[in-house]
Specification:
Length: 218
């Protein structure tokens, strides 16, 4: 049995020195390349306090917008849920889920109501991509994806646990309206921000070289 298999079931308080020691194999901030090579998301299911401070959130957003953006369109924006806003929006999600699934019981409704309560802060990246005479919508949407990735990298560099998620709420028209989205806007990602309460576990990673094809002329 591996060390990771032994420690995985253990629970720690956020900030526990033992937790920090175990997780040093991930999210190594000693250099930019080390961070990129060892970056590992936390899980929204096991996040706790604290969330990002106002200063950290400001830094994360400043890094988020440093992405490729063909045409300088800035085709994205942000929505933040923190504090009581998470529970209030949870009631919106619960009501919508109950409408979609009237046969579901209290356990299912309670789970949906608590989706945004799993982390101290939830940051939505909204793609505002629209038709443009020169810039394809696809390229604008890719830029929003790059924003999501920059948020993960910046949060991780600051020691903030993070996970990029979507779930059904990202694709439901009534939920989009409750978020205040325009008809052409889409949720590119829901980024959960907090502090992991359990050791991070890696997953199998693909062999990058096996995915590489070198083009050659016929």
């Amino acid at each position: 049995m591996t060390v990771r298999a032994i420690i995985a079931p253990l629970r720690f308080r956020a900030g526990d020195a033992r937790l920090r020691a175990i997780m040093q194999t991930f999210n190594d901030t000693s250099s930019v390349l080390s961070l990129l090579r060892t970056r590992k998301s936390a899980s929204a299911k096991t996040m706790g306090e604290p969330g990002p401070s106002a200063e950290q959130l400001s830094e994360i957003l400043a890094c988020a917008v440093r992405v490729p953006d063909h045409g300088k369109l800035a085709p994205w924006r942000f929505i933040l849920w923190e504090g009581e806003a998470r529970a209030a929006f949870g009631e919106v999600m619960k009501a919508r889920w109950q409408k979609l699934h009237p046969d579901h019981g209290e356990a299912s409704l309670a789970f949906v109501r608590g989706l945004f309560l799993r982390a101290p802060a939830v940051l939505a990246v909204i793609s505002t991509a629209s038709e443009h005479p020169k810039i394809p919508v696809w390229e604008q949407q890719l830029s929003a994806g790059a924003v999501c990735m920059n948020i993960l990298n910046a949060a991780t560099a600051l020691g903030v646990g993070c996970q990029w998620n979507t779930d059904w709420v990202a694709y439901d028209a009534e939920i989009a309206a409750a978020m205040g989205l325009a008809p052409h806007e889409k949720v590119a990602g829901l980024i959960y921000l907090g502090t992991s309460t359990v050791p991070l576990e890696d997953r199998p990673r693909p062999d990058a070289q096996a995915l590489l094809t070198r083009w050659q002329s016929a």
